[in-house]
Amino acid sequence: MGMMEKIDVQTSLAREYLTFRLGDEEYGIDILKVQEIRGYENPTRIANAPHFLKGVVNLRGTIVPIVDLRMRFGCSSSEYNSFTVTIVLHIGQRTIGTVVDSVSDVMEIPADAIRSAPEMSSAIDATYIRGLAQVGERMVILLDIESMLMSPDMGLID
After folding, report:
1. Are 53 and 66 spatial neighbours (Cβ–Cβ below 8 Å)?
2. In what order do the strands lie in the sheet with 25-30?
3. Concatenated DSSP letters for 96-109?
4. pLDDT at 10 (0 to 100)
5. What pLDDT, on the 0 to 100 scale, is given for residue 5?
6. Dihedral angle sign, alpha carbons of residues 58, 59, 62, 67
7. Distance CA 112, CA 90 (A)
8. DSSP per position, the chain
9. Comparing C-alpha atoms, which of 38, 19, 142 is closest to residue 99?
10. Which of 17, 59, 120, 144 is the most buried (most CB within 10 A)?
11. What stretches in the chain show pLDDT beneath 50?
12. What Å distances lie between residue 106 and 34, 45, 46, 65, 93, CA to CA?
């Protein structure tokens, strides 16, 4: 089996997503971007950073910016409790931590279960929504986390 055929087989398979909650909504991101999931720890604040950039933590020698996705998406409450977690993502050459209310699970979502998101005003720019997946009773919003975190308004790239 040549290299090309292998790649084709993989792209046709269902993708695995890590799902997490922000407020009442459930979101999913490509599991391949996830480096680890950690409990929330207070980061070191940075002066003049946008309100959703909580600061930085030192993760085994790497300085990692911590973005509170709840504040980024304008969720009303963003209290920190025992369920609050930081999902550490590997995006391009960067490591970025994102704070979410809780992590649900890892689920495989077949491509045919994903619908494109309707055009509507929401807290999230539609360009960052890959699609909506109906999984049993649950509606999961699939985020293009990479383009969202790399967007200029996040202030994470030079």
Report:
1. yes
2. 102-109, 15-22, 25-30, 138-143, 129-135, 114-115
3. EEEEESEEEEEEEE
4. 45
5. 45
6. negative
7. 27
8. --HHHHHHHHHHSPEEEEEEEETTEEEEEEGGGEEEEEE--PPBP-TT--TTEEEEEEETTEEEEEEEHHHHTT-S-----TT-EEEEEEETTEEEEEEESEEEEEEEE-GGGEEPPPS---SS-GGGEEEEEEETTEEEEEE-HHHHHTSGGG----
9. 38
10. 17
11. 1-12
12. 11, 31, 32, 24, 24
Q: Which two tokens stand for residue 153?
A: 């308004």
What tokens were used for 108? 């495989």
Place of tokens 């300085």: 63
CA–CA dist 99, 122 (Å, integer):
20
Nearest Cα residue to 150 out of 108, 105, 104, 96: 96
